[in-house]
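lol ok so funny story. i was supposed to be doing the assay writeup but got distracted and ended up predicting the structure for this chain instead. priorities right. anyway since i did it might as well share w the group, maybe its usefull for someone
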Amino acid sequence: MHTHVPNPITQVQLDRLRRAAGDGPVLILTHDNPDPDALATGQGLSALLTAWGVPNRMVYSGLVARAENRAMLNRLTPQWEHSDTLDFLGQYPAIALVDSQPTAGNNRLPAPMLPSIVIDHHHPLRDTIPQVQYVDVRPEIGASVTLIYQHLQAAGLTPDPLLATALFYGLKTDTEDLLRGATPADEAVYLELLARANRLELIQVEHTGLPRDYFRAFSRGLNAARVYGRAVIAELGLMDRPDLAAEMADLLLRLEGAHAVLCLGQHGNVLHLSLRIEFMQQDAGLLIQQIIVPPGKAGGHGTVAGGQVPLHGQDVNHLIAHIEQRFLQATGQDSPGEPLL
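and the output, tada:
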């Protein structure tokens, strides 16, 4: 390894994971509207199970709409299948949940059902976790990719160039090139994967073309943004894709003097929240717990957090105003606010 970081995954843990998987087939799920970290982690787990001779299937729900994420899905992890109903859960003796946790509110696993395997790096640790057969949840780690790579490494497996590229891109995006919440373990894995990644495939994913709708949505988002001292809020209204809030929040955090950003938008019957805070401020995962309102669920890590509130007939404008008020209180901002543009 380029950086000497001991691998915490032991043979005992690998054996426990192997037992939790059983004879298969294992259904691998992740959070709705999966990001590159989720897609790559699932692919890494699939490779490990396949090497063990355990049949498995990867299914995601929601949308993969961001242009780069779509390019990654099509080019690097095409084995993922899409289904929003999951009416086949009963056919699988074992279910694995990656980059999410049971009852987190951001995945389609019905509440009474428990997965056999959970691999995740988000706050908070859900109260269902002790009942899961195999768990590796480490909120201090920058990306779930790091966790699954350590499992592959402990099992003596070297990812092929396509898998290495997917894993690298997942780690790169979730930690913003190691600048966001990365640990020495993430750094070590990043360097190993960089050496194995297919650079041409990486360029194709990172520089994929953007549709005109992308620029229209960004224009609307910038015009919606308001600045409250060191906090920024953007109400995005009806969004044609749920990850627009996250993309907008990433951009707005770069505003000079901004310490915290909250973007909110409605997709379908759900209000999506994306929170970003400046490095060295309080933990975003803890901050979003102060902002979210029932029956919403939220989680996060380091400088990044997100949440969803199902809209069951309540007044959306009232709900948004309430959440924004909580955000401004939690960040200690009491200025009246002014348009960004």
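The first helix runs from residue 11 to 21. Residues 230 and 258 are 5 Å apart (CA to CA).
back to the writeup now i swear
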